[in-house]
Design a protein that fits this description.
Keywords: Signal. It holds the Pfam family DUF302. This is DUF302 domain-containing protein. The chain is of the alpha+beta class. It has a single domain, classed as TATA-Binding Protein, CATH 3.30.310. It is 47% helix and 22% strand. It has a five-stranded antiparallel sheet with strand order 1-5-4-3-2. The longest helix is centred in the last third of the chain and has 19 residues.
């Protein structure tokens, strides 16, 4: 009984730790926010497939207005050759493209890389692709994220 209560307490404590959107994937990084974002940026640039559109430092922006945030950086990246036809098919996809990767630090000091699941993102805009096509996109992005966090 004690184990069950302890397990429920742990579960309840973790509920607020991450957003509950099933369309997001969070991976822990063994590096700082800056180093993880640098590693991701380098992987994107070296990929030959993707380009970086923007890197935003949320904590630095907050500091400019007298607010304080834990370290958090957003990287917008994509492949215009692949993205343009998708946007032509579903203009609302422009809300989610280019791709976003958020590198952030939680209250315990752990660093996370969070990104949108490609299947969920395309699906919410009614874009249909074969499982094989989705796997190719997903695998390409996972290579980048692996290089950033591992």
């Amino acid at each position: 009984m004690r184990k069950a209560i302890f397990g429920l307490a742990l579960l309840a404590a973790s509920v607020g730790a991450f957003p509950q959107d099933v369309g997001m994937v969070s991976r822990e990084s063994k590096y700082s926010v800056v180093e993880t974002a640098d590693r991701l940026e380098k992987a994107i640039q070296a990929s030959g497939t993707y380009k970086i559109f923007l890197r935003m430092d949320h904590a630095a922006n907050a500091k400019e207005v007298g607010a304080s945030l834990r370290p958090s950086q957003l990287i917008l990246f994509g492949n215009p050759k692949g993205g343009a036809p998708l946007l032509a098919e579903a203009p609302t996809l422009g809300l989610d493209l280019p791709n976003r990767a958020l590198v952030w630090e939680d209250a315990a000091g752990k660093v996370w890389l969070t990104y949108n699941d490609v299947r969920q993102t395309l699906g919410r805009h009614g874009v249909k692709r074969s499982d094989e096509q989705l796997k190719v996109i997903d695998d390409r992005q996972k290579v980048l994220f692996d290089k950033a966090v591992d």
